[in-house]
Specification:
Elements lengths: L5 E8 L3 E2 L5 E2 L2 E8 L9 E5 L11 E2 L2 E5 L6 E2 L4 E2 L4 E5 L31 H15 L4 E7 L1 H12 L4 E7 L7 H15 L17 H15 L2 H7 L23 H16 L2 H13 L10 H4 L6 E7 L7 H13 L4 E6 L13 H18 L1
Parallel strand pairs: 5-10, 5-11, 8-9, 11-12, 12-13, 13-14
Antiparallel strand pairs: 1-4, 2-3, 4-10, 6-7
Helix pairs in contact: 1-2, 3-4, 3-7, 4-6
Length: about 375
């Protein structure tokens, strides 16, 4: 087993990018990180698609900050389930995000100022188109696998639909073929927390030298509640009061932090507001809302998946009430109806939606075995 070999690059795309909204982006940058080595015939490439607040930094310590460990480090690396001694893994920061790729914080060449509210709305399908262009630049005609969890799983599914010949395997984890009304409602409340912050200034807050931290804090608190299961929150916090050692355990009868779960949510919200961009939050949650590939097929997921050629692994988690197992089974049932090759696993895990990011031997062994089979077929 070797050390993790990490390389980070910013790649410029000069060709205009037509978006689903009808807007056209004149040019843009994508930040990527790669791990491992691309083999001679470029058949061992794996694309990792990120979820809402993640980035290109998928594994290992950040080259500029050793304390910043990649968001899927327990999954990807030498000897790990997605083994970078054997696969060439690509992580990228999606268009519209705030970690280096072109987004609302970037300078608009037409004005010389940050795009702000003028950055166009992007969709999952738009992201997949940019990822395909990235593959072209890297000379990768076909991915061994495209893999993602949550919103990343939506991108993996879109890959199989939009570019059926360009991936051998599609790995969809803790995801859904489209958001429920309840999920859209959660996103709308979170967006309104940002939109109603006086420091938002219609999305052009950069010009005022402020950050809509109150809105971002609340948006993150709302979102974080949905990522955890009731059982997980009960085990972590219960109804324990937040008290310094030695202080009375009686109620304070105030609206300051009383319970440990309140302290936790405020901490998560405060931390999020220091590194994430408010306009990016709006863009990415709207991309989540708009994802519905069956819409152009009259709502038929069977017809939507009729042309896919990839083999599928679909994984769900029993306590994920944000993207529950029945939504993953919809994908599986439609694939089976089309006689596509699909493996499905529902992991009985207590951690809710966040389970896809956590250590679980059953889950990790499943991924390890699946990627191991890919290598057996290749050899």
């Amino acid at each position: 087993m070797s050390e993790l070999h990490l390389s980070r690059n910013t790649i410029h795309f000069a060709e205009p990018l037509p978006l689903q909204s009808g807007a056209v982006l004149a040019g843009y940058n994508l930040v990527i990180e790669t791990y491992g080595k691309l083999n001679a015939d470029k058949s061992n490439a794996v694309l990792i698609c990120h979820a809402l607040n993640a980035s290109h930094h998928v594994a290992g310590p950040d080259p500029e900050n050793d304390a910043d460990i990649g968001w899927w480090d327990n999954m990807i690396g030498p000897g790990k389930p997605v083994d970078t001694d054997k696969f060439f893994v690509i992580g990228l920061n999606n268009l519209g995000s705030c970690f280096g790729s072109t987004g609302p914080m970037s300078l608009n060449p037409a004005t010389g100022k940050p795009y702000g509210a003028d950055f166009p709305v992007v969709t999952v399908e738009d992201w997949v188109n940019t990822q395909a262009r990235l593959a072209d630049k890297l000379g990768i005609r076909r991915f061994a696998a495209v893999m993602g969890g949550s919103l990343g799983g939506m991108q993996a599914l879109a890959w199989a639909i939009q570019f059926p010949k360009r991936l051998a395997h599609c790995v969809v984890i803790a995801s859904t073929p489209k958001l429920s009304a309840q999920n859209i409602a959660f996103n709308e409340v979170a967006r309104n927390a940002i939109l109603s912050d006086p420091d938002f200034h219609g999305g052009n807050f950069y010009e005022y030298g402020v950050i809509p931290k109150r809105g971002l804090r609340l948006a993150r608190m709302i979102g974080h509640i949905t990522y955890l299961s009731d059982a997980d929150m009960a085990e972590k916090f219960g109804r324990e009061l937040q008290r310094p050692h030695g202080e009375s355990n009686d109620y304070r009868f105030s609206f300051d932090v009383e319970f440990e779960v309140e302290s936790y949510l405020r901490y998560q919200g405060d931390k999020f507001s220091t590194y994430f961009d408010a306009n990016t939050y709006l863009l990415i949650t709207r991309a989540l809302d708009y994802f519905d590939p069956s819409r152009r097929y009259g709502g038929s997921l069977n017809r939507t998946l009729a042309e896919v050629q990839a083999k599928f692994l679909v994984v769900s988690f029993s306590t994920d009430w944000r993207f529950p197992p029945n939504r993953s089974r919809e994908i599986v049932e439609s694939l089976l109806s089309n006689r596509s090759e699909v493996s499905y696993a529902e992991i009985d895990a207590p951690h809710g939606h966040d389970a896809f990011l956590l250590d679980d031997p059953r889950y990790h062994n499943l991924i390890r075995a699946y990627f191991g089979q890919m290598l057996e077929v290749q050899t």
